[in-house]
């Protein structure tokens, strides 16, 4: 049996990843492809429980504990959902994956990319996506989307400083530049349909359709 393809969407909060992940999954299903649409942190009961701890709790969580908890959530998700789906030939569309840990947790004083990847190797066999879409958009447009979606409510990580989020955006860009074969950088400006069309054009190598 052929192995399914593993596609991830990455980028900052509110850029449109969830919207695009759902549109991509629908477009693939319309082509007769079996698709698992999932997200991180989460995607399995164990990982969703860890998500609540990470994002919605009042707990004081240090940088290393935070990195380990994201890696633990991912390990459960990969073992119980992503790897079995790929093995049975299902394509997996995942809203955030390892690159989010590299961008958000991988910039601390003692937690660099090697450490994050070591946790990924231990927890998730080092599984990497076949293709990753990095969505970027004008800051003002994203602020409006977030205000419309969340109002004043942000989670424990989304609510961090503008400097933290600027550093995260820089690290995403660096990751994309360092691996141009896997990453496609997509402008998330414009309507959801326009962004979707850009993603489908970049998907051509995987779907076998003309670009
Ligand atoms: N291209 C777009 N233009 C305008 N609004 C959008 C666009 N894409 C998504 N949205 C809206 O912006 C908000 C954030 O989108 P979402 O897909 O949840 O982003 P993310 O998953 O990256 O946080 C949602 O309310 C969504 O409906
Ligand atoms: C998967 C992952 C997410 N995160 C953060 C990014 C987001 O702030 C939060 C996930 O929240 P979520 O609501 O899913 O993201 P979004 O607002 O983009 O729709 O967790 C990490 O810090 N590391 C990770 O490995």
UniProtKB/TrEMBL annotation:
Database matches in Gene3D superfamilies: P-loop containing nucleotide triphosphate hydrolases
Chain's role: Phosphorylation of dTMP to form dTDP in both de novo and salvage pathways of dTTP synthesis.
The protein's enzyme class: transferase
Keywords: ATP-binding, Kinase, Nucleotide biosynthesis, Nucleotide-binding, Transferase
Gene Ontology terms, MF aspect: dTMP kinase activity
Residues reported in the UniProt entry to bind ATP: 11-18
InterPro entries: P-loop_NTPase, Thymidylate_kin-like_dom, Thymidylate_kin_CS, Thymidylate_kinase
Name of the protein this chain belongs to: Thymidylate kinase
Top-rank taxon: Bacteria
Species in which this protein is naturally found: Aurantiacibacter gilvus
UniProt keyword DNA repair present: no
Keyword Acyltransferase applies: no
Classification via CDD domains: TMPK (cd01672)
Family statement: Belongs to the thymidylate kinase family.
Enzyme Commission number(s) of this protein: 2.7.4.9
PROSITE patterns: THYMIDYLATE_KINASE
SUPFAM superfamilies linked: P-loop containing nucleoside triphosphate hydrolases (SSF52540)
Enzymatic reactions: dTMP + ATP = dTDP + ADP
Domain Thymidylate kinase-like: 9-199
């Amino acid at each position: 049996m052929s192995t399914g393809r593993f596609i991830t969407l990455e980028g900052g909060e509110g850029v449109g990843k969830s919207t695009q992940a759902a549109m991509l999954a629908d477009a693939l299903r319309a082509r007769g492809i079996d698709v698992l649409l999932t997200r991180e942190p989460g995607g399995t009961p164990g990982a969703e429980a860890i998500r609540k701890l990470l994002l919605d709790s009042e707990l004081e969580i240090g940088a290393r504990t935070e990195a380990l908890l994201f890696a633990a959530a991912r390990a459960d998700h990969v073992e119980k959902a992503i790897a079995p789906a790929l093995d049975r030939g299902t394509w997996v569309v995942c809203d955030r994956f390892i690159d989010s840990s590299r961008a958000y947790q991988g910039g601390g004083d003692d937690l660099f990319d090697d450490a994050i990847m070591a946790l990924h190797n231990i927890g998730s066999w080092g599984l990497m996506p076949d293709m990753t879409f990095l969505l970027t958009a004008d800051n003002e447009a994203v602020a409006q989307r977030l205000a419309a979606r969340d109002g004043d409510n942000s989670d424990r990580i989304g609510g961090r400083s503008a400097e933290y989020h600027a550093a995260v955006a820089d690290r995403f860009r660096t990751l994309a530049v360092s691996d141009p074969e896997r990453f496609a950088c997509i402008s998330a400006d414009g309507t959801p349909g326009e962004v979707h069309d850009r993603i489908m054009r970049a998907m051509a190598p995987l779907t076998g359709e003309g670009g």
